[in-house]
Amino acid sequence: MIENLKKRFPVFEKNKNLVFFDTAASALKVDSMIKAVNECYSYEYSNIHRGIYELSSKLTKRYEDSRLSISKFINSPSSENIIFTKSATEGINLVSYCLSDNYFHDGDEVLLTTLEHHSNLVPWHLVSKKIKIITAKLKSTGELDYADLLDKINSKTKLIAITHMSNVTGSITNFDEIKIKAKKFNVPILIDGCQYVPHKKLDIKELDPDFYVFSAHKLYGPSGLGILYMKSKWIDRLGPYQGGGSMIKNVNTDSSTYMNGFQKFEAGTPPIAEVIGLSASLNFINEVGIDKIFEYENKLTRYAYNQMKKNNDIKIYGDFSNQTSIISFNIYGIHFNDLAMLLDKKNIAIRTGHHCAQPFMKNFKISGNARMSVGIYNTTSDIDYLINSIEEAKTILQS
Ligand SMILES: Cc1ncc(COP(=O)(O)O)c(C=O)c1O
User: Fold this and answer.
1) Architecture in CATH of 2-30+289-398
2) What's the 175 CA to ligand 1 centre distance in angstroms?
3) Is the CB of residue 212 less than 8 Å from the CB of residue 193?
4) Where are the domains of the chain?
5) Which among 190, 170, 191 has a CA at the least distance from the CA of 24?
6) End-to-end Cα distance, the chain
7) Which residue, 40, 128, 141, 226, could crosslink 273 as a Cys pair with Cβ 3.0–4.6 Å?
8) For the segment 88-97, what is each residue's pLDDT rounded down to a tens digit?
9) What number does CATH give the domain 33-286?
10) Is 98 a catalytic residue?
């Protein structure tokens, strides 16, 4: 029963009244993941890949087995397509740097959208001496304008980089037509799946992107670990990204040669305990079932949405036909930060501000909004408490 999963999250033992609605920023941590990381550091730790001794070889195997579980979780063709980074942000920076180094030509166009997180904007700005950034518009509801986006794909487009699920509105991108048009012009696609993967089944073979990124900390897993899926043809063509230990074949004082495959992108001692921790949190998600998680969270979000929608003072961003797990809103006459402070006094954690999506906020001529986002530890009574508390906040702040 998903309703009973709160007890798997130790944070609630010390914060019994906490009502946590900021999972989109980072999810709370599940006990089995904490145990796996703790045991790794306590009893199993040594550096991996290079040690001949047993401690190192055992941990190397666990680490590479974890790569395999992560690969299976997204139905990747092979664990060799999984590259570990320190964050999803680093994954996109890696791709933008490597494409700029060995793919883009002056004046090539990269197509982004106004819905993107800064992590899928700024890495492209950093290489914008070479490329021209084109941005797809939003509709007045805050949804992606697919007609505009499709219209902007042409022979100059050399990459399309889009979120799979918006961290502001929770709306899920439909890639069907984008893929058809991209194929016509032979344009690779990068997908930012940070918000999608924790909530909905990802079948990477079916979706078939060239690059896909997500982060462990939004999957009830540890911080400090991002996952970059890269198609084999790009692994062969691109890189390296950073230089150092682990990614080399042969080093002289004045030159070096590099590993092939994902290894050439993983310089230095990797996030060992974090990878093992993520594998434990994915086991937890698999035990519960990602489809059940989606159904449960979707029911909760719709329950919240229907109640908020009754209130004419609340403006919700996005049209909600294709949204899940996130509701971002403003209340007439109330600053979002005042709302968050009052809710905090009632142990409710919501997020306010621009959510690292300033172009979205600028599009609506606002400096920010309030965002509630659900995880598997939330319940309908959490939602009722939030809705009642918003009503109380309105009485206090609007008078
Ligand atoms: C849609 C989206 N993309 C990218 C990121 C960046 O993820 P990270 O901070 O783990 O690198 C986030 C984090 O909030 C996000 O929501």
Assistant:
1) Alpha-Beta Complex (3.90)
2) 20
3) yes
4) 2-30+289-398, 33-286
5) 170
6) 42
7) 40
8) 999 999 999 9
9) 3.40.640.10
10) no
Contact 61, 39 (CB under 8 A): no
Q: What is the pTM of this model?
A: 0.97
User: How far, in Å, CA of 389 to CA of 342, rounded?
Assistant: 9
Yes or no: say if 189 and 175 are a contact pair by the CB < 8 Å rule: yes
Query: What residue's CA is closest to ligand 1, atom 7?
Result: 88
Q: Which of 86, 117, 373 to mutate to test the pocket of ligand 1 (most atoms within 8 A of CB)?
A: 117
List all residues whose CB is within 6 A of at least one atom of ligand 1.
25, 87-89, 117, 119-120, 163, 167, 192, 194-195, 215, 217, 226
Gap between the Cα atoms of 124 and 277, Å rounded = 31
pLDDT, tens digit, 9 for 90 and up, residues 241-281: 999 999 999 999 999 999 999 999 999 999 999 999 999 99
- Give the type of residue at 52: I
Rounded Cα–Cα distance for residues 252 and 267 (Å): 17
CA of 38 to the centre of ligand 1 (A): 25
